[in-house]
Amino acid sequence: METSLKLSDFIRYTAPVKRFRPNWTAAFGGIEERGATQDEATASLFGALRASTVGDFTPVVIPFGGYIALVWRDQATWMYTIRPDSVKGEIKSNFHSIGPKRDEAEARARVHLAQYVLDDMLGGADFTTEEIAKIILEPGDQRDFFSLAARSIEVKMLMATGLTWQEANIQLDGLHLQRSR
Q: What order of strands is seen across the sheet that includes strand 31-35?
């Protein structure tokens, strides 16, 4: 007995429900698409499946300051994670889904990696903000990082006077600080 299976045999359909879900949903694995009719949802799903198998899947590994940023593609979505370089094994949590553009995912990963190293610098690690900012390639992201770094240093200095993190930020924002101690 010969059985002929087609991809369409594995599609999960969800019918529309008034007000709550006005369109048909066609799903295969982790990909879902919607359409006004079941056929439109299926056609959209096949387009998404095609798109998820073409293009570049080459991951990016960015080691810096005792951490590793890993950028990879899962179907049509680029993702990243930041881990201490001593951590090994499968990535099961703490990853960020960015979208269909590798460059955007890499840029976000570089900024996040710089923030991790900045936190270590504020804790006593031997880095300067200029050294850390070199990992960030986009000029606008570098400017934002320098602003964040300056603010973080000011907060740390105020906390050294006995203020809490929240109190230090309130004072930097120019708001009136009422202590209830």
A: 12-14, 24-28, 31-35
